[in-house]
Write a structure and sequence with these properties.
The complex is a heterodimer of chains A (about 325) and B (about 260). By secondary structure, chain A is α/β, with parallel strands linked by helices. Chain A has two domains: about 240 residues, P-loop containing nucleotide triphosphate hydrolases (Rossmann fold), CATH 3.40.50.300; about 70 residues, Alpha-Beta Plaits (2-Layer Sandwich). Chain A has ten helices and 13 strands. In chain A, helix 6 links the parallel strand 6 and strand 7. In chain A, helix 4 runs antiparallel to helix 5 and helix 5 runs parallel beside helix 6. The two termini of chain A are about 35 Å apart. In chain B, helix 2 runs antiparallel to helix 3 and helix 8 runs antiparallel to helix 11. Chain B has one domain. Chain B has about 260 residues and is mainly alpha-helical. Classes of the chains: A alpha/beta (about 325), B mainly alpha (about 260). Chains A and B meet through helix 1, helix 2, strand 5 and helix 3 of A and helix 1 and helix 5 of B. Bound molecules: adenosine-5'-triphosphate (ATP) and magnesium ion (MG). Adenosine-5'-triphosphate sits at the interface of chains A and B.
Chain lengths: ~325, ~260
């Protein structure tokens, strides 16, 4: 069953810029063009793309708070814009940069209010809350005012708040932004567990490749308002992730290394960033070539970030 | 929104307001000091006699009681009604993802906060004034009517500030709108001067505007300067404006959320 169905969705913004004291210029920004997307029940989909690609706009249209200029949307069998309030009962939403918690009150006060807001039956609410407190490890700060929580703690609180009413669909807009490695791990494993155990459909946007890697089978890439790829992360990397970067720290700062099939993309004192295609050369092979010319102090190998891959992908 | 949810939201808002102790204390102090200032200005104007039908104790009572109204009816700011800034920052999306009407949601918060403000900042300026001046105390029988009028005054304040907040959907500068409304409502509610001290033509205008229902009318009920019929009229007047302003707010909210553009990603 399709939980989200987008057909040829379009969105333009009219931006007025000042062009002189009294003159204003009207400019049209095409934020989303002809987006088609179908997400089925139980799927966990990463919606990624560079800044300004149209991710948040798409999410706003899916959740019924932004009117598309064209196309058809169905979410959980409803028309989001027309049935917004009805839809919110089955929807959980998390923003990395916004909060639905009462900042001056203890965390548990916000939770208790959600029971009344979503009219969750008392025993079920208690069961859900206990489970969420346990999974997200909230017990130590449940009675602390939200404003005193660290970002990671608050984010765990936000997640719990979004899941308390057993939503059928959860939409997360950059839920891991600004979190440290430990907090990111907590968020990811929570989402993965819930999705696996309850079959909750999850759509998330992120700029963190690790989120995608650890969470989502399916990757949808949007750039300049268009879906440019819809498939698995594995496919994507197999098709476009040929590139490797080796960072070498040499004994001394030297001229850019000259090795066949290798580009020096960055040079910083004794440190050089070498780029090559892993289909043509292996990393050991490249290192051996460097070692033949200079002595190496340290080495690291980097995979390109998703942002770089997308950029590359789009340029091709 | 169910009554239960309304109460739960109001309770939390009450509790939240009660956590701002220092702000409340300093505002209370300011309100009281200004009570004394305004009382002495009015006494100076009265020059030892009555002033347009108000005795000295009426004037002084007006000064202190109206200082207690400021926070309850939201003359100077929108209190917990943060919708205007939420619209500007895009945080309004959080409000829109709630299965509850936005107007009721903020109204419940307003009511909870007003309840706190009555206790924290409503009574003390009056008691402080009573230590120094002779005040006009109401007939106990009129107190329930005064209480009703006070509730209506606070709700009127909400209805008005809700419109200000909604302007954020169309106007770039909500703070400007907010400042203008603060100025106008302070003047026409009777905070600067009781309306009966206005030039007669201006008083007539002021008495037709909703602001008069926020301070002037409830205080007249308190002071007992209105006859029975006039009191009923005052309540009807407050209710009429309240219904009208709430309805306009509701309508505008619908228009806004239908063709909404939420700021920020
Ligand atoms: N309210 C708005 N008014 C005008 N233009 C807007 C508005 N919101 C978004 N845009 C424009 O639409 C395009 C898509 O924005 P959107 O917020 O959907 O991007 P995004 O993919 O979420 O980006 P990010 O990764 O930076 O959050 C951008 O060019 C942006 O400038
Ligand atoms: Mg965004």
């Amino acid at each position: 069953m399709a939980v989200i169905e987008l057909e040829d969705i379009e969105k333009q913004y009219v931006v007025r810029t000042r062009a002189g004291l009294f003159r204003r210029e009207r400019q049209i920004v095409q934020a989303v063009s002809a987006v088609n997307l179908q997400v089925n029940k139980g799927e966990m989909v990463a919606y990624v793309g560079p800044n300004g690609a149209g991710k948040s706009s798409t999410i706003k249209m899916i959740t019924g708070i932004l009117q598309p200029d064209g196309g058809r949307i169905q979410v959980l069998g409803m028309e989001p814009m027309r049935q917004r309030v009805q839809l919110t009962r089955k929807l959980g939403v998390v923003f990395g940069t916004r909060s639905q918690l009462w900042i001056d009150l203890p965390l548990q006060d916000s939770f208790a209010l959600l029971r009344h807001l979503y009219r969750v039956e008392e025993t079920r609410f208690k069961r859900n809350l206990d489970e969420l407190v346990d999974r997200l490890d909230l017990s130590t700060f449940l009675d602390r005012p939200v404003r005193q929580l660290s970002l990671g703690q608050r984010m765990r609180g936000e997640l719990a708040a979004a899941f308390l009413h057993d939503p059928d669909l959860v939409v997360l807009d950059e839920p891991t932004v600004g979190l440290d490695v430990v907090a990111k791990y907590a968020v990811r494993s929570f989402l993965a567990d819930i999705n696996r155990e309850y079959g909750t459909t999850v759509l998330l946007t992120t700029h963190d490749l690790d989120d995608v890697e650890q969470l989502c089978e399916r990757l949808v890439i949007i750039d300049e308002g268009r879906v440019v790829l819809d498939g698995s992360l594995g496919d994507f990397k197999a098709r476009f992730g040929f590139e490797r970067i080796v960072v070498v720290d040499l004994e001394a700062a030297v001229e850019p290394l000259e090795i066949d099939g290798v580009d020096v993309v960055e040079r910083n004192g004794p440190r050089q960033h070498l780029r090559f295609d892993r289909r043509e050369r292996s990393a050991t092979d490249v290192l051996a070539a460097v070692a033949a010319q200079h002595s190496i102090r340290d080495v690291s190998i980097a995979e390109p970030t998703i942002e770089e891959l997308i950029h590359r992908f789009y340029l091709e | 929104m169910t009554p239960r949810l309304f109460i739960e939201v109001a309770r939390r808002s009450f509790r939240r307001s009660s956590t701002y102790r220092l702000a409340t204390a300093s505002a209370l102090f300011t309100n009281t000091v200004f009570g004394f200032l305004r009382a002495s200005v009015l006494l100076f104007l009265a020059n030892g006699g009555d002033l347009r039908g108000m005795s000295e104790s009426d004037l002084v009572t007006f000064a202190f009681l109206s200082q207690g109204f400021i926070a309850v009816v939201g003359i100077f700011n929108s209190g917990p009604l943060t919708l205007g800034t939420a619209i500007k920052s895009g945080d309004v999306v959080i409000d829109l993802y709630r299965p509850a009407g936005l107007q009721q949601w903020y109204l419940a918060q307003w009511v909870g906060d007003a309840g706190f403000q009555v206790l924290a900042r409503g009574v003390l300026p009056l008691l402080a004034g009573a230590l120094v001046y002779e005040l006009t105390w109401p007939d106990l029988l009129i107190l329930p009517t005064f209480a009703l009028s006070l509730v209506l005054a606070s709700l009127l304040g909400f209805a008005l500030r809700f419109l200000v907040a909604l302007s954020g959907f169309w106007v770039f500068d909500v703070r400007g709108v907010d400042a203008i409304v603060t100025l106008i409502s302070g003047l026409f509610a009777g905070l600067v001067l009781p309306l009966n001290l206005f030039p007669p033509a201006l008083e007539d205008v002021a008495r037709g505007l909703p602001f008069s229902g926020m301070i002037q009318l409830p205080i007249e009920i308190f002071l007992g300067t209105r006859s029975g019929l006039e009191t009923v009229w005052a309540l009807v007047f407050q209710m009429g404006w309240l219904a009208a302003l709430l309805a306009v707010g509701f309508g505008l909210l619908r228009v806004a959320t239908r063709r909404l553009v939420v700021q920020g990603g």
